[in-house]
Design brief:
Length: 277
Amino acid sequence: MTPASIKEIREIIKKELPDLMRQDPEIQHMVLRLARQEFADRHETEDRFTLLLKELRRDREEQSRKWDEQQLELKREWNEQNSKWQEQSRRWDEQNSKWQEQTRMWHEQREEQNCRWDEQNRKWDENQKQLVRLHEEIMAIALKHDRSIGALGARWGISSEAAFRNALAAILEQSFNARVINIQDYDDEGQVFGRPDQVELDVIILDGMVIAIEMKSSMSKADMYLFERKVRFYENRHQRKVNRLMVISPMIDARARKAGEALAIEMYSDSMDVESL
């Protein structure tokens, strides 16, 4: 047979074989026997398919079981973690509540302390004002008393000086035949005070000796220099040499004593200290 014939026969078989298999059982069995060598039959295919389905079902069930177990494990872990978070959140809320309460108490204590400080400061200011007012009142009273005492002391000092001067003059004149003279000259050139003014000086004259005496309740350094200038003024005005300069005072300043020593002035704080004339 030629290749063209073989090709035609194949075409005829392909075209007629399906109808022949449906119409002729023998041809159908023959084709099935031939095909069974290469392909499984229906029952075998169904068995294999069933087995495959069972394996797939078993795998799916196993996978589903593992998935369920995994989901249960994840759910359990999630519940545990969620429980821990809830516990931690509860503790945090408790701590936060305690912190807020503590903060509130601190604020209240601070406000209370501030109120106390404000009250203390207010009382302190009031006390200070009262103390200042009391101090001013005391100082005013003290100043008034100082002025009164000063005026009284000044009057007492003047009176005491005059009384002592008169008594001393009487003793010297009556017992020692001395002359006690109260000199009152006007200083036109201002030699004593730096400007023209009246100059007063007590002088004792005994046996031709001239003694200048200054009697005061207190003597300062300036008083010493003033006394020395009054003596020099007397010497220039009356052309008489003063032989002794004496200061009699119960209170002589330390600086006044140094000035008196430098000016050769005899100083007596007690009447018993006066040397014999």
